[in-house]
Amino acid sequence: MGFLDFLKGRRPAAAPIPDELWDWAIAEHRIFRGLDEGERGRLRELAAGFLAAKRFEAVDGAEIDDRLKVSVAAQACLPLLGLDLSWYGQFTTIFITKDAYSVTQRWEDEAGVTHESEEEFAGEAFELGPVALSIPDIDASGWGDGYNVVIHEMAHKLDGLDGAYDGCPPLGRGPHRDPQHRLDRRRWAEVFGAAYEDLRAKLDAEGRTKRRRGTSKRRARIDPYAAESPDEFFAVVCEYFWERPALLKDEYPEVYAQLAAFFRQDPAARQSL
């Protein structure tokens, strides 16, 4: 690639993912089993482009191999089947940690008192760029049980594209500019706001006042962590949209419909075949 090509932002062609690696990724992750041949081909191209554009960095002795990279790339690109890679253009580095890691959280209550606690993170989408993912949680993702740290953190990246982490990605970008696919921000806010408050009310009624992000856990219902904030609600329901679409559609059909329109996919129909 010449210097002028670099200045124009051109990238070398993405190297194809070897058949053995790709076949492993598709067979290993249940969330891919409903994809037809065309969708698998599209996903493979997106994943190859993702791998060409992103840099994986090991943290604290983490070991990164080709299987891990392809696993992350394939799961990260599943939400982009109806979109394109430009939606992930705001970051280049993915930090891979050996295990979940602790982060000190500080917040101020209504009385102005500052509190501090240690929280265990399975992954993180940093506001100004990188994404962090732990190896055990990558391995625990894609099994069709509702948990997917890769999709969760990528959802945060989509959410923050308009500069605000508020549970609403930019609705007037890319294919959504087309009147046929245009989404209404007010309607989105109504649907997601109502579902978020409904989940909080249900959890409060059950006495589940302590909400914490699970690490490498299987879950049967909507993760209580979704009730932390509107942006976490969006990220968690994105997990369920691909991991357990029928459950999400049954719990919050209007949320499912908004996500289906935004991502231009219908995983519930795909997985019912």
Fraction of residues in helices? 40-55%
How far is the first residue's CA from the last residue's CA?
45 Å
Largest sheet: 4 strands, mixed
CATH architecture: 3-Layer(aba) Sandwich
| Structural class label | alpha/beta
CATH class equals: Alpha Beta
CATH topology: Collagenase (Catalytic Domain)
Outline type: globular
Count helical runs. 11
Q: Extract low-pLDDT stretches.
A: 1-9, 102-109, 214-220
Would you kindly provide a written description of the structure presented here, covering whatever features stand out?
With 273 residues, the chain is α/β, with parallel strands linked by helices. It has one domain: Collagenase (Catalytic Domain) (3-Layer(aba) Sandwich). 44% of the residues lie in helices and 12% in strands. It has helices at residues 3-7, 19-28, 37-53, 66-77, 135-139, 149-159, 185-205, 230-243, 245-251, 253-263, 267-272, and strands at residues 55-59, 93-97, 101-108, 114-121, 123-125, 131-134. The chain has a four-stranded mixed β-sheet. Strand 5 (123-125) and strand 6 form a beta hairpin.
